Amino acid sequence: MAPTDAGIAVHLQRCAAQLVTRNQLRDRFDLARTVTHTADFPRRAAAERAADELRTSGYDVTVTRRGLLGASLEAGREDALEDDRAVTFTREVFDVVQRAGGRYEGWSAEVIAEAQA
Predict the structure, then answer these.
(1) Is 34 helix (H, G, I), strand (E, B) or coil?
(2) What residues are paired with 71 via a beta bridge?
(3) Measured torsion, CA atoms of residues 44, 47, 53, 56, in degrees rounded to the nearest 10
């Protein structure tokens, strides 16, 4: 297994575990909410390349300097979690980050429980 394959496998396992927990919390997967992805990069220029690509896919992206040369990226977009959307957006952002030479950290989002909807 190539390193990228191992990396995406770990993130897809984390994604599946998060969906199980969200299901237990009665999260409304059909309702869109801001899903925020984070990543770290050894160079700010690499983070900016990833940011540009993510913006073309509808993400609102912020790049923040980390250390002397590195940068952190935060990308958010309104998404629902139903119909394998979580797997799709995890792969999408992971691939962009990997191509730019960064390290994908994962995603987070608000839980919208049935009582809140």
Answers:
(1) strand
(2) 41, 65
(3) -80
How buried is residue 25: exposed, middle or buried, by Cβ count under 10 Å (0-12/13-18/19+)? Answer: exposed
**Cβ neighbours of residue 60 under 8 Å, at least 6 residues apart?**
75, 76, 77
Where in 54-93 does DSSP place strands (E)?
Answer: 60-66, 70-79
If residue 37 lies in a helix (H) or strand (E), which one and from where to where?
Answer: strand 33-41
pLDDT of residue 57: 97
Q: What is the three-class DSSP state of 35? A: strand
CA–CA separation, 108 vs 76, rounded Å? 9
- What is the pTM (predicted TM-score) of this model? 0.90
Fill in the amino acid letter for 50.
Answer: A
24's tokens: 């237990």
Query: Which strands sit side by side in the sheet containing 103-109, from one edge to the other?
Result: 60-66, 70-79, 33-41, 103-109
pLDDT at 6 over 80: no
Q: Which two tokens stand for residue 65?
A: 């300097």
The one-letter code for the residue type at 34 is: T
